[in-house]
## 1
Amino acid sequence: MKEDIEQSENRVQEEIKAPLIIQTNKRLVTDEEQAENGCCEKKQDRCMVYLSTFVAVCGSFAFGSCVGYSSPTQSAIREDLNLSIAEFSLFGSILTFGAMIGAITSGPIADYIGRKGAMRMSSAFCVAGWLAIYFAQGALSLDIGRSATGYGMGVFSYVVPVFIAEIAPRDLRGALTTINQLMICCGVSVAFIIGTMLTWRTLALTGIIPCAILLFGLCIIPESPRWLAKIGHQKEFELALRRLRGKDVDISEEAAEIQDYIETLEKLPKVNLFDLFQRRYSSSLIVGVGLMVFQQFGGINGICFYTGSIFESSGFPSDIGTIIYAIIQVPITALGAALIDRAGRKPLLLVSGTGLVIGCMLTGISFYLKGHEIAIKAAPILAVTGILVYIGSFSVGMGAVPWVVMSEIYPINIKGTAGSLATLVNWFGAWACSYTFNFLMTWNSFGTFILYAAVNALSILFVIKIVPETKGRTLEQIQAAINAS
């Protein structure tokens, strides 16, 4: 009897154990399969985000084409249209005035007609401007066309990074927003290189190509979900968010987070330019505007606009130096885009600022040596090294990261106004730097670059003390952290 009882108990235990083991194994396999399937779905779900980013950064490429147009075409335009140096200087610098007007109006326009609407309008201005330059027979048509393209640049410089930041998942936001600066660099580099092979009128027509791609692509991609939520289009908001995240992805949590944040902001009064200087917005305003000040007054546009003359003054062949300059900035900007969501915003800014100081010091020393006839053969190499270190350092951090941070730190109720202010400051700095560069070089070449080195050294202190790290946070979490501080 005891043996029968023991045998029956053993059979029962075995029957109980067997299903549990099988079920556990099945459950483990199922979990692994789900994890693998989830990864696959995640990649597929981001296709629309990548496509939308590609379409938006066509505007950034158009931006770069405008910036790079004047450098390789200067002698040909002056010769064909009999322009004086003063007339061509006006043609080159009026771009920044158009961009300043675009910066002032970009925020309200993007808030009123949407991010896609602002990009459409900006593309139309650029196309009209390039056509005016192509058909120009005198200085007036050139200046009108250049102003129109400048206006389009000013709008693009604000709306493209904002649109990308608003559609991107938090883990991709930094890298995707940095592509904005990468495509600007590509546009400048392509204009520099093909400008040596094409006539100035044909080069103007190439500027229409990215605008045409952008206008076509805007018919395919969704509008910014955050903007749709802000204006109360609930159905379109959910549809746009689902298109960006995928059909099989649960968007309820992200949608609720965005809606809660929008509802909170709706309780706040609408702001104008003077309201930005209230205490509650001071931290965001200081960070956004401060980064734009240091980005421009560190000397980038003076060096970029007059790279050829810098190389000539130092005794290095300008054509070779300009091509090297154009080529090197693209891969380094791509490196910055790859690192921004891994290393973070602040580390890249600090590394970039340090490189800018070193580049300015090397270039300044080369002019000092040449001016005092010391190591004359080494001076050109030192100048080229300094400029390349400068542009490489700018491309990896200070070129792109301020735009990324600007698109992240402003609350959505002031994003339009505050973004316009920051972009206006940026373009004013671009004009001031490019306008004063030749005067400073005439005064003292060595002193010019030492002055830029000092500004970039101050930017390092500003980043350490003031700029917050925004890596890995949603836009709503960033606002909560800034408000808490």
## 2
Amino acid sequence: MGILEKISEIEKEISRTQKNKATEYHLGLLKAKLAKYRSQLLEPSKKSEKGEGFDVLKSGDARIALIGFPSVGKSTLLSTLTKTESEAASYEFTTLTCIPGVIEYNGANIQLLDLPGIIEGAAQGKGRGRQVIAVARTADLVLMMLDATKKDVHKELLEKELESVGIRLNKRKPNIYFKLKKGGGLSFNSTCPLTKVDEKLVQMILHEYKMFNAEVLFREDCSADELIDVICANRVYLPCVYVYNKIDQISIEEVDRIAHQENSVVVSCNMKLNLDYLLLSLWEYLNLIRVYTKKPGQPPDFSDGLILRKGVSVEHVCHAIHRTLAQDFKYALVWGTSTKYSPQRVGASHIMHDEDVIQIVKK
């Protein structure tokens, strides 16, 4: 029996099993087995030849993976937002390899990767799905392109495919401390009441992974699935924007309903509707800020800002300008929304805001 057959057997048993107090241990074990087989499926065997992937050099200030089912308008969006031409046609599987483009927005270069259409069963390697998903894991943001005329069927299928390969969309890492030990058995603790798991279930899941000595501390009420994610330690937590294309083909009431869903943006690539709002949303989801530099006695240089992540300190800005600057740093003068008055003299730990101006004074 191959891994694929084992996975489908376990999935069938999970769907057959009723969820109640009596079956929670059994379900927990099945989920642990399923996660184990899926990770075996993704890690190529030692004997096999190195698989052919999409080697795209990471460039720019951030990377967005554009994924979706075939023929939803991904290539059209890439051609519209970037200067890259991706072949677009009304038949499925027009794009067969990974096509990178660069969005120039607010002075930042954001790499947008148009990945081939994902089909159902991509996680098992169908339709180049495994290479597509491997590239998606390296992105800072997933842009999921959906067809507004096809309800939410595509969205659920894509989320399921990504979930099965360890990509968690719009979720944060479970607050569980987990550490393997040399001996001493299982040390289990929690700082809050647990309603979804108990010590016995944790022990059974760990035994499934051949782990007998470990320290586990739950800092929040997590499920068995979240514990498995922590044990596997290869999960990627990414923000995701759901972009619904072809809104010119549905009613205004339906557009309004979709637009009010969480993390959703409605666009029409053919009629170029709402693309400016999409760019604004991507900027916010990527947590990017611009910081401008100023030399003593000269006006700020607004033509060439530093593109950094939200929450960076003055020390990060020093490293971004030059790696030796932080060693000679004395203090900085900052103009902008991060200060009480302008200019304010600040230290290396001061947190910068978008469009702040900084002048660094050396020792």
## 3
Amino acid sequence: MSSEKLAEVFTYESLVHAVAGAVGSVTAMTVFFPLDTARLRLQVDEKRKARSTPAVLAEIIKEEGLLAPYRGWFPVICSLCCSNFVYFYCFHSLKATWLRGQSSTPGRDLLLGIAAGVVNVLVTTPLWVVNTRLKLQGAKFRNTDIRPTHYTGIIDAFSKIVRDEGAVALWNGTFPSLLLVLNPAIQFMIYEGLKRQLRRGVHRELSSLEVFFIGAIAKAIATTVTYPLQTVQSILRFGQHRQPTERSRILSSLRNVMYLLLNRVRKNGILGLFKGLEAKLLQTVLTAALMFLLYEKIASSTFRVMGVRRPASSR
């Protein structure tokens, strides 16, 4: 890579976008974290009868204590901070490098989002595997086949997973995660497209309400389209599923995904693929809307304070 291209990748603007995206996502996730706890229980624990988000949260608090909905908060926040920093940095660096002053289109935004997502998945999957284990540790499951785990923290979880299951286990769920790069890619494509529509003819800063609503719409569509794969991803990360492995890891991963999807349909019908969607939509839409709002405000304020004109590629 030439020094000119390196200069385009490692820029102040990309760093501002990455930090703003990381701070916005961490704040938003903290606010709506209990909803994510309810979603994960519904995805992993098939025998749980309570289906609504309030009912699941009430059960968790009653059986496991008032702070149980925030179990695993720290590793999730660490993972989310790293993940969103990598994603926002890659997305805006690639945008600056590839577009070179050209106007964005939905197709280009989708391709940039997929590329940024692939980098993000390969770098941060071990963090998400660990935080899924920690988040479900100590939970009272209805499914008696689930084996309890005992980790004292992030480092202990990393070392025990590597020791007991091998280093490859840290990338459990990578295949559906790579398929799921479509989620943020679709989200960013819709978000950027709606932003362009609202700014058509006039380059202006969007209002807080506009940013909140287009962030919510973009995430709602992306989540609904990709939710069955998110369920499979959660099950594989939890590490309780065991299937015979093929010589080809890609073929084995594909078989696992298909097996889990078909098994879910066989046991619970087609709607079983969307169990927990209500909790996921509630959590992810509100979180994404607040995250985009904070991200836009932090990035805009930082550029203004530093006296830097916001680059055209971010518009």
## 4
Amino acid sequence: MKESSVEQPSAVNKANTEDDGMSWWYRWLCKIAGVIGGISCAVAGVWNCVTVNPLNIAAGVWMVLNACVLFLCEVPFCCQFIEFANAVAARADRLKPWQKAFFYCGMALFPVFLSLSITTLFGNAIAFATGVLYGLASLGKKGDAVSYARLQHQKPGDEEKLTGTTDGEAQ
């Protein structure tokens, strides 16, 4: 009985990752951007903490926390010493791309609003770009031109059939 309950979440995660419409290379691009964004947030956050201004210190601490969250959500194997890392990663994988986009962009914008400086801008730029990549994934795949052209040519015929007119056949 336990064996079926263990298999069920993995099947749900696999089905959910296939339902989000992201190809394998785009999913890897988002993960790599998340890792690079985490590294840039961590480095810039530590650098931002080397000051006496309390807002810069708060923004730096927030950026280091952003880096930890990005690592937990995108690459949990880097955080093996944290017991709940796999649970957080599994929950993050169940989120829809637009939810991840909103979360990552919000996380990246907060330190910039807290302390606007070059360090916070460049440190959070890649983390924000990760959110943008997930936002673009939520828009869905682009259709090909041939299918779109066929759809456009079928519309007048379908409308004529519905209304009963045949004037459009002369075109």
